[in-house]
């Protein structure tokens, strides 16, 4: 430790790098047990937490690459056993455990993962009995999702060949354990659903450890099974093995061989069942026929001859037709009489006749009015002539015509009736029967 002899001043970074190097060199593979607290899972995908006991604590981190393959979900309060290497986080000057592997204390990681996933999918309803579809009794095509080289496919083929040798089988080969197996199984189930020409699907494999069967405990397989529109039988491991796929499937078979037995009955069983059903069906049909025949006979006794019923209906039709014709004739006669009466009344008040009568009256009155007007005009004309004659007799002109004349003053037109009205030198006018004259008075006298 020459660094600490004498006086050597270090920067914080130099000191931190020095401590980091010492820690990483001496603690690159440590196991630590503690309780989880201050758990944080940001969107970066890293997991940050603290491992603590009664007297101490240490910061820990699981980077995204390791967190992605973690089989179970870490929660606050969980007792963990973690393996990792110690490093220093320089920005805060803290040392931390870079965790590469972690497992729950007291229970295996896979078992905990199984329990956590089972609980979550159960809450979502993926295992609900209401979602499960009935498996067909006599499928025409069976889809199988398993390894083409495993014991499971041989067991299934052997049982199906023995029970129903000509059933149509379609195998979608997949890996049933190891990395990527779960994705292949889920994809194969969806392939069959897209294909749509199988009546039932068997998904399974033979027995093994929990690690061997783990692909059937993956969430992706459970969701593919739940989405399947085709009824699906899960047959994984041995009878004691229960996987997530068993819980999500429409039907669980304890083994692949059992799945083959569940998917279809033997031909002999089906034939026997069919014979029994035919016998029961014939018996029921015969019973129904006997009962129906008795009912028909009883009903026939109460039936009348249809021909006599038709004749009666024809007779009734003729009777009704005769009544209808008589009624029409009677109504026609009554309405004819009523029409004749109305025509007579209408003739009496015929407007044309009234027009003719009143036209003659108007013509007579017109003639009478003409004659009266002519007589009136004649009498008026005579009266006018008599009055005209009388006027002529009284007219000054008639007097003038007899040789008289009238003098008047020119200044005002007034007649001169007395010589005292004029004096010598006055200009006067004289009116004759025909024409006028202007005169100057030379002398007046009173004679």
TrEMBL record:
GO cellular component assignments: cytoplasm; exodeoxyribonuclease VII complex
Query: What's the catalysed reaction?
Result: Exonucleolytic cleavage in either 5'- to 3'- or 3'- to 5'-direction to yield nucleoside 5'-phosphates
**What EC number(s) does its UniProt record assign?**
3.1.11.6
Q: List, in alphabetical order, the GO biological process terms annotated in this UniProt record.
A: DNA catabolic process
The record's family statement is: Belongs to the XseA family.
Q: Which organism is it from?
A: Geoanaerobacter pelophilus
**Root EC class:** hydrolase
Source superkingdom: Bacteria
Q: Which UniProt keywords apply?
A: Cytoplasm, Exonuclease, Hydrolase, Nuclease
In its UniProt record, a GO molecular function of this protein is: exodeoxyribonuclease VII activity
Residue ranges occupied by any Exonuclease VII large subunit C-terminal domain in the UniProt entry: 126-439
Q: NCBIfam families annotated for this entry?
A: xseA
Localization per record: Cytoplasm
The record describes the protein's role as: Bidirectionally degrades single-stranded DNA into large acid-insoluble oligonucleotides, which are then degraded further into small acid-soluble oligonucleotides.
Q: What gene, per UniProt, encodes this protein?
A: xseA
Protein's UniProt name: Exodeoxyribonuclease 7 large subunit
Q: Does the keyword S-adenosyl-L-methionine apply?
A: no
Subunit details: Heterooligomer composed of large and small subunits.
Q: Which residues form the signal peptide?
A: none
- Record domain OB-fold nucleic acid binding: where: 10-102
